[in-house]
Amino acid sequence: MCTLEKRGDLFILTLTGDTKKDQEHRLSPHLISSIRSALAQVKSQAVNGSALVTLAQGRFFSNGFDLRHAQAVGVKSGSTQAAVAELLRMVDLFKGVVADLLSLPMPTIAAVTGHAAAAGLILAMSHDYVMMTSSRGVMYMSELDIGMTLPDYFTALIRGKVGSAGARRELVLLARWAKVGAARAAEMGIVDSAHGTAEEVVDAAMRMGEELGKRRWSGEAYAEIRKALYPEVCGLLGLKDATVLPSKL
C-alpha cells in the first residue's frame, strides 16, 4: 500500500501497488491507515532538518476515495445506505491524513507523476509544495460528476491553497471538464513547478527536500507557522495553535 524510506534526514513516502487496480492508489480505509501509520513514523523520527517527499508508482498519484470498496460494502450488506455510510467513513478517516500533513514538523513535497483526482488531489495539496509532470497526468475534482458535495475540509483547503476565485471555480465547478495539466495547474497556483518527465519531477522533489532540510529549521516552529497560514481548514480538522519560542534568547 505504501512504503517509507529514509535517506539521511529525508523521508520518502511511496504509494505502491502490485496490480494495475492497486496503482490507482484509491483511498480505502486500509490505504488511509497505512499512510497515517507511515506519517506517524515520520513524525516520531523527525529532527530539525527533516523533510518529506511523497510519490506514487504507476499512472496515478491517487484516484480519490475507493468508491468500489464502498459499493462492495453495500452489496455485501444488501443496503445502499451501508455503501453511503462507508463512503462517509472514508471522508472522516481521511481528515486524519490531511491533519497529519498540515501539522507535520518539516517541509513536505508532493511529487505528482500521474493523475490526481478528487481526494487524491487533496492529498497532493495537503503538502507544502506540489511538483507535477507535464508528460502525463491531470488534476481534477470529480465530485460534481458523481453528484457529491465537497467535504467542508476539502473546500477550506482549496480556499486556503488556491488564491484566485476564478481558478477555484474552474477546479470545482467544471469537474472532469476541467482536467488540468501541469502548465495550467502552475498558472492556477495548484502546482509550484512543472517538469518534463516523471523522473524529473521526482529528482526535483528530492533536491528541494534536501535543500530545505539544510536550513535546519525548528520543526515545531515550522508546523505552527504552517497551521497559522490555513486557519479555516485547521479549525475544521481540530488542530490547535501553539506558541513556539527560541530555546535560547
From TrEMBL:
Keywords: Lipid metabolism. The keyword GTP-binding does not apply. The keyword Lipid metabolism applies. This is Delta(3)-Delta(2)-enoyl-CoA isomerase. The lineage of its organism: Eukaryota, Viridiplantae, Streptophyta, Embryophyta, Tracheophyta. Signal peptide: none annotated. It comes from Sesamum indicum. It is an enzyme of class 5 (isomerase). It comes from the Eukaryota. Pathway: Lipid metabolism; fatty acid beta-oxidation. Gene3D superfamilies: 2-enoyl-CoA Hydratase, Chain A, domain 1 (3.90.226.10).
